[in-house]
Amino acid sequence: MRSFVVGIIAWFALTVTASEHVAGQAQELTSAVLGAITTEHLDTHSREITRYERPSGSPGENAAIDYIAATLAGAGVPFEVHEFMGYTSNPISASVTVRGTDFDPQAITMSFSGATDGVEGIAVDLGALSDLPELEIGTGERLFVRDTRGFEHVRGKVVIVTGQVRNIPTRVLQELGAVAAIFVNPEERLNDLIVTSTWGTPSLMSQHRLPTLPVAHIKKSDGDRLRAMMASGEVTVRVRTEVDEGWKPLRLAVARITPGDADEATPYVLLGGHIDGWYYGGTDEGASNAAMLQMAIAYHQNRDQMKHGLVVAWWPGHSNARYAGSTWFADTFFDELRTRGLAYLNIDGVGQIDAERFGASTSPALAELAIDIVGGLTGQTVRPGRPGRNSDQAFNGIGLPLLQFSHARSEEDGGYWWWHTPDDTYDKIDFDVLRTDTELYVTAISELVAAPAYPVSLPLELDALADALTEREAESDGALDLSEARARVDRLRELWTEAFPGGLVTEDPTRTLDIAILRALRPLHRIMFVPGSDYHPGPGIYGRPLPGLEPARILAEEAPATDRYGFAMAQLLRERNRILEAIDQATRAATDLTERRAGS
Prior knowledge:
Elements: H1 4-14, H2 18-21, H3 24-35, H4 39-49, H5 59-74, E1 79-98, E2 107-109, E3 116-128, E4 135-136, E5 144-145, E6 158-162, H6 167-175, E7 180-184, E8 215-218, H7 220-231, E9 236-257, E10 268-274, H8 282-301, E11 309-315, H9 324-332, H10 334-340, E12 341-346, E13 357-362, H11 367-378, E14 402-408, H12 431-450, H13 458-475, H14 483-499, H15 513-529, H16 552-557, H17 563-599
Parallel strand pairs: 3-6, 6-7, 7-8, 10-11, 10-12, 12-14
Antiparallel strand pairs: 1-9, 2-8, 3-9, 4-5, 9-11, 13-14
Helix pairs in contact: 1-13, 3-8, 3-12, 4-8, 4-12, 8-12, 11-12, 13-14, 13-15, 14-17, 15-17
């Protein structure tokens, strides 16, 4: 069975090269835009933005937004600053003490952790995160632990576990009945993180995902000391956590760059990155914010060379409100994005000192573009990964194809050790690296807004879908029949390749053809990334293709007479219907497009 990456490479070998892709008007636009972006520009913007600690809704975040707005205004770039209420959670403090000892390590709590004036319990060591039981994620809603056997002793206890704090382990420990959890960092540091699986501001449909379990985080050496005490006998631990959770006014700056002769219906590419950050957020994400700001100015200066528009958004609420800003934008501008949105490019964590290793995360339709650009600019061959449920990727329900580049330090050099710590300061930015990273994004944006052919690949999307269908059927041990879905994918691929044998579509003077291509792509993207409703974000826990078919493995695990088997089969049959309908929607859109081309 072909993997996602193998399918990409096979398609890549049969299609045009990077030099053929990046040509003509797109290449000219890239050169012009890069000419207006200097390391001095990037340095100036980064210095201003990283002057402030920027948790969402804070004076520091607002000062950074004010700087961005003033700079855009000074350059004549059209922009707006939206204000809305978001549900945020700021971790304030935590303490971990052992009764009868002087043990009082440095500790922090997490965003959306349960707050407590103090809860005590006998300490229980559960080892590493990988030793915890799994959550049942068949529905993505009312999650529960699949098998609690062997974990009955956790109820009423304070649990010690090694690993970075995450939302699924927090939920598992809460479901097991722990009264508090202490996560021991595998390294000698503390990283601020978030422990809810909600996506965006919680709704009545998702508020149950807000955890109630108090969570503390301590360094490796303190975890070693605590475990040494436990080895000598029973230890009673007291955990206290303080969290400021509730509604705060948030502000979202959005720049809108349109071609010189554009009207209000012009399609656009969306570029986004979060403005909030833990502490001063040098590389997470002041450097990205600086690159976004200068890109907005440079594209505005060269807008007459653009065929499509560019919208640049500085998301609030990424770190301490679970992607509230990008989700608010998706909810508020859903219809606009559905009718005009071409792609979403997320930028995050760029400009790191000593960065060496390039990478990309893409939906299948943009994987070829990512391979071309990174290879052409750096000489490195990348194998694009599937975008996870992170990085403000709030647009899957709309059906926007995704693209994000990465440029990271090697683990041998210490990796990205300052991530989500007070050490992520201005000095962690290398402006030569940031310039290179910016060039990757400029090249991709120019291809998307100016190239004669819109660089998405429907065949790659179909290949990835076919592979996912085969894999999910195999997981069910053949109990789930997906042969009809695969057959419809094959027919759609044949239709498309017969109509566009070169894999590319020629320029459309009316500028509507690219959106017509997206009408065929959107239904496929949704089923590949969205487990249920396209309008209500699912939890931030899915990472595999066709997440709505996640229960397929249950058919191989359970006997057909069990309730769990029957409930899983009911859900899978309904999801299969959703998949068939999506393929049919894509086929109708592709048929309309081919008939339109034939008649032109």
